[in-house]
From TrEMBL:
It comes from Elaphomyces granulatus. Its main location: membrane. Belongs to the cation transport ATPase (P-type) (TC 3.A.3) family. Type IID subfamily. Residues 1-26 are annotated as: Disordered. The lineage of its organism: Eukaryota, Fungi, Dikarya, Ascomycota, Pezizomycotina. One of its GO terms (biological process) is potassium ion transport. GO terms for molecular function: ATP binding; ATP hydrolysis activity; metal ion binding; P-type sodium transporter activity. Keywords: ATP-binding, Cell membrane, Ion transport, Magnesium, Membrane, Metal-binding, Nucleotide-binding, Potassium, Potassium transport, Sodium, Sodium transport, Translocase, Transmembrane, Transmembrane helix, Transport. It holds the Pfam family E1-E2_ATPase. It is an enzyme of class 7 (translocase). Its cofactor is Mg(2+). This is P-type Na(+) transporter. Gene3D superfamilies: Calcium-transporting ATPase, cytoplasmic domain N, Calcium-transporting ATPase, cytoplasmic transduction domain A, Calcium-transporting ATPase, transmembrane domain, HAD superfamily/HAD-like.
């Protein structure tokens, strides 16, 4: 962290614990430390003093403000304000008193959802309320069969939705990372272990390597301390801490406050002591969590009446389902519209019967109302979403909120973190420069801990271990980086995992312990067989002395006996600027080293210099002094970075072809961020464009722009480095002002506000903080950017399929309404309108036949060009113009043909509409022969037409005989066969629907008593004739759409080349995304 310079980026911290001179430290109150406990080095007394400059006896003023800015005052002053003795800590009594006052040291996440809230959420939608009203009316008129069926539908909707939501909440709870469970704290002068939740303000806590910082603390004593603050600041490298510094600037970034440590960060090396200045919700992590919890708008400035009205209004909106995602709101509005239409239709029925609302008339009115409502819509939608979430879970995408699936279809921008998402989140040696060996580069590293992963090249030519063995300078370089190293890299052979899975040959997993930079160097040496364990196995090298890394002089040195040469080898590594002055090289050579280091640094690498010297045994005593670090022989430079995931570049390219802009927002240095952006394809030919100066920006430059100035930019930057939480939020807001629909990814606490503001927030499951997961809509279980691309693809597929089954269900309802309204004119001897379909036939068609067909449509595979399209415009709802037109045309044709089938039987064998029996709506008698046969014919016609429609709506404009010309181009006219069998669920749903028609029509008792129809014979000719006419008319309408270029009929099948050209990914401009991708309105 800190101000960027032109010097190479260097890793400032390497190993625990510190062992160095005391330069730069004030003189002392004595605190004894055992320095590096290694052979050949004696314990030293390190003297530390924390001066209290003119503050000791001043009056305590503005307590909270001083503690909030603890980095600007000395540690003794902090202790004085908090009333604690830094040597002895708090007393047990005082700690218990403060615990009662301040509460447990816990960060409360976003409020969880209770079982009752999940249950209430299932019934809080208009369609379910409409079904409840219909159920009540059915019970009221003693139609128990119909009422029972509707009750079953309502229960199915509730159960399926509840199970899905409950599982999502349980899954996310299981992903929550545990905070540090125990910590070491000083109480009554004794260092004791206690649960972190019992920490209080003023406690003195001891930290060592590997600890999770339990609270925000002001450090007062430390040895070579570095912490990983990536979850809070986004910085991918450990931050060196300097307890004795006092800053003058209050409003400095958290990551630059090197005398502070913050809750949730991890100690990567060293040890320290600090005093707790904030716990629980008062920590920096807690403050962000509190912002996320306080999502309700403030009502403090409203009077009682206004507050009550707002509560009532919100309650009504929630009950009616008019809150939530655009799809949820649109479906609830649609349900209310259907309810109003059902009332209108019932009114028409009652008016035609001159408002004699009793018996047959009331039943007919309810029957028409039921016909207009797609009872199975909510169940089908929920099941489709649930299947989609299960599919995504297999791809490591955990969906917390179902509505986020719908939003993924409209995503036009992805704002991604770098560390751990685009990259692997682990350091690896990218290149090494050895003067007499050339440039050594490592490629395609899949596992940074595995020395066998990837390939190694020297000056562009792949090399092996034998080549390294024959190159003396490279061999010396590798020995140096292996021995001047405290990390351990080893292969875990599988152990219990292998036994548990009964897989004796299971490949081992490579693990590492130590500081990330040192691990990367050890892996580099092990690639050529020069790992530290193998070097020390024989008697060639014997450890003699070590000078641990000192952040003041930025280098580390070790000394080993070289038994073969009977000499002492001294190996040193450190920052380039720290080693160049002590090299035994002329100015020209030093300048060459500096230039090479700067070139490597500009590629986003952290550069270390490696050197050595040989000391004769007679000068053995010199190696125990730091002065031995002089007149060193240069061995080489090594560049370390966090490598991109192997699949990231292809995933970014897929996003670009799908019309999605990928932005990198990271806390890393601008050189590092730029290098990674080029490598993964976020930046490419943009490097040479006129807009290149604004494609990459530092956060302070972006934050310095006003909103109008940001909006005036031709395009928003693709890379923003050194981001703060506010930078990410401003980026999301800037995208929204450009009508972009955006995803924000993140793993740290600092990402949570932006995750909440984004249209879809995606958190990391492995490395993500609990607060980030709570704020997110989706969690990536594997932290992989490519999984996000799978989520977008699944979201697009689901949106397409929702349109398909909506069209199918609504066509059925429109057809039934037309049939029932026109059939009002058919009256029996008593003047009652005769049902062309019985109420139970309507329910059977809507709930059994249509439901399984709709579910099958929801399981349709993605179209071949799905990820080559531009994003769907979020301002256009799922009820597109094409869907509305198609449902009216298909529904009118289907309803008319059902009416034709009914009339054909009445007039074909009977006296026509003049004699339609007596009381045939209630049951069978001898006068109902013709009506019952006509009703069975109409039912069979409607069923078969719905089965055919399920296949027709697989695509809105392609012919049934050419549904998938890309996959089945070689089948010619027979392509219909594999296309129909492709979706096996839908295929067998059609087969089952077809087969079930016959027992419903012919089974005794079932046909006459339950469904109020009877078996037919010659009428099957009428049914088949209607099916043939329907097929011809629908195919003619689709042909007209293709011929005149209407809606989807005017769109060709997109290819990869089309998508590449639109995104500017042709060979000459690969990787540079066109920032003005057009949207698609279906």
């Amino acid at each position: 962290m800190g101000t960027e310079t032109n010097l190479p980026d260097v890793e400032e911290s390497t190993e625990p614990p510190i062992c160095s001179s005391n330069e730069g430290h004030p003189k002392p109150t004595l605190i004894k430390h055992s320095a590096c406990d290694v052979p050949g080095l004696i314990e030293i007394e390190e003297v530390l003093q924390i001066r209290d400059t003119q503050e000791g006896d001043t009056k305590l003023e503005n307590y909270e403000e001083q503690i909030q800015n603890a980095h600007t005052i000395s540690a003794i002053r902090v202790a004085h304000i908090l009333g604690v003795d830094l040597q002895n800590g708090l007393t047990v009594v005082e700690a218990e008193s403060r615990l009662r006052r301040d509460g447990l040291n816990k960060v409360k996440g976003v409020e969880g959802v209770s079982v009752w809230q999940i249950l209430l959420r299932q019934v809080s939608n208009s369609l379910t309320l409409v079904l409840l009203i219909t159920m009540g009316l059915s019970f009221g008129i003693a139609d128990y069969i119909e009422a029972g069926v509707i009750t079953a539908v309502i229960l199915l909707n509730i159960v399926v939705g509840f199970i899905q939501d409950y599982r999502a909440e349980k899954t996310i709870l299981s992903l929550q990372q545990l905070s540090a469970p125990m910590c070491k704290v000083a109480r009554d002068g004794q260092m004791v272990s206690t649960k972190t939740e019992y920490l209080v303000t003023g406690d003195v806590v001891q930290l060592t390597t590997g600890d999770v910082v339990p609270a925000d603390m002001r450090l007062f004593d430390g040895v070579n301390l570095s912490t990983d603050e990536a979850l809070l600041t986004g910085e991918s490298f450990p931050v060196v801490k300097k307890p004795h510094l006092v800053f003058s600037t209050r409003d400095m970034p958290i990551g630059d406050r090197s005398n502070m440590v913050y809750s949730g960060s991890i100690v990567t090396q060293g040890r320290a002591r600090g005093v707790v200045i904030a716990s629980g919700m008062m920590t920096e992590v807690g403050k962000i969590a509190k912002l996320l919890r306080d999502r309700r708008p403030s009502s403090q400035n409203l009077d009682f009446a206004a507050r009550m009205w707002r509560k009532v209004k919100l309650g009504i909106l929630n009950i009616l389902g008019l809150t939530g995602s655009p799809l949820q709101i649109k479906l609830s509005e649609f349900a209310l519209l259907l309810f109003a239409f059902a009332i209108l239709l019932a009114t028409i029925v009652f008016s035609v019967n001159k408002w004699h609302v009793q018996g047959e008339v009331l039943i007919y009115g309810i029957c028409v109302g039921v016909a207009v409502i797609p009872e199975s819509l909510i169940a089908v939608l929920t099941i489709t979403m649930a299947v989609g979430t299960k599919t995504m879970a297999r791809k490591n995408v955990i969906v917390r909120k179902l509505q986020s699936l719908e939003a993924l279809n409209s995503i036009s921008s992805i704002c991604s973190d770098k560390t751990g998402t685009l990259t692997q989140g682990k350091m690896t040696a990218r290149m090494a420069w050895v003067q007499q060996a050339g440039m050594i580069t490592i490629h395609n590293t899949a596992d940074p801990f595995n020395p066998e992963s990837g390939t190694v090249q020297a000056n562009g030519v792949e090399i092996d271990n034998e080549w390294a063995n024959n190159n003396g300078p490279l061999k010396s370089f590798l020995i140096a980086v292996a021995l001047c190293n405290l990390s351990a890299v080893y292969e875990d052979s599988g152990g219990d995992l292998a036994k548990e899975r009964n897989l004796p040959g299971i490949p081992g997993i490579w693990k590492a312990v130590g500081e990330p930079t040192e691990i990367a160097l050890q892996v580099l040496a092990m690639r050529f067989g020069y790992g530290k364990p193998s070097l020390l196995q024989g008697d060639d090298f014997g450890f003699l002395a070590e000078h641990c890394f000192d952040s003041a002089i930025k280098r580390m040195t070790v000394a080993y006996w070289n038994q073969n040469g009977d000499a002492i080898e001294v190996y040193t590594k450190g920052a380039v600027e720290a080693l160049i002055p002590i090299l035994s090289a002329d100015e020209r050579a030093k300048l060459e080293i500096q230039d090479q280091a700067e070139k490597m640094a500009k590629e986003g690498l952290r550069v270390l210099c490696v050197a050595k010297k040989t000391v004769s045994p007679e000068d053995k005593d010199q190696v125990f002094q730091r002065s031995i670090e002089s007149n060193l022989n240069f061995l080489g430079l090594v560049g370390i970075f966090d490598p991109p995931r192997l699949e990231t570049a292809e995933a970014v390219r897929q996003c670009q072809m799908a019309g999605i802009n990928v932005h990198m927002l990271t806390g890393d240095h601008i050189h590092t961020a730029t290098a990674i952006a080029y490598e993964v394809g976020i930046l490419g030919a943009c490097k040479h464009s006129a807009r290149a100066s604004k494609v990459v920006m530092a956060a302070d430059e972006f934050d310095g722009l006003s909103d109008p100035e940001i909006d005036a930019l031709e395009a928003l930057p693709l890379v923003i480095a050194r981001c703060s939480p506010s930078t990410k939020v401003r980026m999301v807001e800037a995208l929204h002002r450009r009508n972009e629909f955006c995803v924000m990814t993140g793993d740290g606490v600092n990402d949570s506000p932006a995750l909440r503001r984004a249209d879809v927030g995606i958190a990391m499951g492995k490395s993500g903080s609990g607060v980030a997961k709570e704020a997110a809509d989706i969690v990536l279980a594997d932290d992989d950017f490519s999984s996000m691309v799978s989520a977008v693809e699944e979201g697009r597929r689901l949106f397409d399929n929702i349109q398909k089954f909506l069209l199918h269900l609504l066509v059925s309802n429109i057809a039934q309404v037309i049939l029932l309204l026109v059939a009002l004119s058919f009256k029996d001897v008593d003047g009652n309108s005769v049902f062309p379909l019985s109420p139970l036939e309507i329910l059977w068609v809507n709930l059994i036949t249509s439901s399984f067909l709709a579910i099958g449509l929801g399981l349709e595979e993605a179209q071949s060009d799905l990820m080559y399209r531009s994003p769907h415009d979020p301002r256009v709802s799922v009820f597109t113009r094409e869907l509305i037109i198609d449902k009216m045309i298909y529904g009118t044709i289907m309803g008319s043909l059902c009416l034709v089938s009914f009339v054909s039987v009445i007039y074909g064998t009977g006296p026509g509409a003049t004699d339609l029996g007596i009381d045939c709506n209630n049951g069978w008698n001898d006068t109902c022969q013709v009506v019952f046969r006509a009703r069975a014919t109409t039912y069979a016609t409607l069923t078969f037409l719905l089965l055919l429609t399920a296949w027709e709506v697989k695509h809105f404009s392609r012919s049934l005989f050419n549904l998938d010309p890309v996959r089945y181009s070689n089948w010619g006219a027979l392509s219909i066969l594999p296309a129909l069998r492709q979706n096996r669920f839908l295929f067998w749903a059609v087969v089952a629907g077809f087969s079930a028609t016959f027992p419903v029509v012919y089974l005794p008792f079932i046909n006459r008593v339950v469904f109020k129809h009877q078996g037919i014979t010659w009428e099957w000719g009428v049914v088949l004739g209607c099916v043939a006419v329907y097929l011809a008319l629908v195919e003619s309408w689709k042909a007209a759409k293709r011929a005149f270029g209407m809606t989807s009929g005017g769109k060709k099948i997109l290819t990869m080349q089309d998508a590449e050209m639109r995104a500017g990914l042709s060979p000459s401009t690969a990787g540079c995304l066109s920032l003005s991708a057009s949207r698609e309105t279906k």
